[in-house]
């Protein structure tokens, strides 16, 4: 399992998830910068993601949706706020309606992804910051922790596929 820890910090209003992968930092970076690879793991296996648009640049926007087992669609958006390839990515994340318009009632979160070189392995730390304790608790109740763990559980096989093809 790729995920080695997951912690909710109610003082700092964030959720920290740490995972390690058997691939170098540049390879793990590609699962974030390439929307076709990103949609193979962003979201739990029963809620696969489809990125309609993905502008991987500071200030760039992404629009995506995840499709549930019954065909239900949950839409989301990102705004990329920082890129320091291949070790750091920051973005704002939120829910959207079916017209891709942000839904303000759930607020938005700010994500910081850090990749560390561990030799031939990579440690990925994903810290999601929340606007309030209420928002943090609401997202955790909605299954954020389990969803992220399931999503990241798909990364090892994605990395192995490309390694086998090289």
Topology readout:
Blueprint: E1 3-9, E2 14-21, H1 25-33, H2 35-38, E3 49-54, E4 61-67, E5 73-84, E6 88-96, E7 108-117, E8 122-129, H3 133-141, H4 144-152, H5 155-165
Antiparallel strand pairs: 1-2, 2-8, 3-4, 4-5, 5-6, 6-7, 7-8
Descriptive notes:
- The chain is of the alpha+beta class and 166 residues long.
- Helices cover 25% and strands 40% of the residues.
- An 8-stranded antiparallel beta sheet has the order 1-2-8-7-6-5-4-3.
- The protein is globular and about 45 Å long.
- The mean pLDDT is 93.
Overall residue-averaged pLDDT value: 93
Question: Would you report the number of β strands?
Answer: 8
Bulk shape: globular
Distance between the termini: 23 Å
Descriptive terms for the model:
8 strands; alpha+beta; 25% helix; 5 helices; 166 residues
Brief write-up:
The chain has helices at 25-33, 35-38, 133-141, 144-152, 155-165; strands at 3-9, 14-21, 49-54, 61-67, 73-84, 88-96, 108-117, 122-129.
């Amino acid at each position: 399992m790729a995920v080695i820890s997951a912690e909710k910090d109610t003082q700092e209003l964030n959720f920290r998830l740490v995972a390690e992968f058997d691939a170098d930092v540049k390879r793990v970076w590609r699962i974030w910068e390439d929307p076709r690879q990103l949609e193979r793991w962003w979201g739990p296996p029963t809620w696969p993601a489809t990125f309609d648009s993905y502008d991987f640049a500071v200030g760039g926007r992404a629009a995506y949706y995840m499709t549930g087992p019954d065909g239900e669609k949950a839409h989301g958006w990102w705004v990329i706020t920082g890129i320091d390839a291949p070790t750091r990515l920051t973005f704002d994340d939120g829910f959207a309606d079916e017209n891709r318009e942000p839904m303000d009632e759930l607020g938005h979160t700010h994500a910081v992804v850090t990749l560390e070189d561990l030799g031939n392995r990579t440690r990925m730390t994903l810290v999601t910051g929340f606007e309030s304790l209420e928002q943090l608790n609401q997202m955790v109740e909605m299954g954020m922790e389990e969803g992220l763990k399931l999503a990241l559980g798909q990364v090892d096989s994605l990395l192995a596929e490309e390694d086998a093809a090289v």
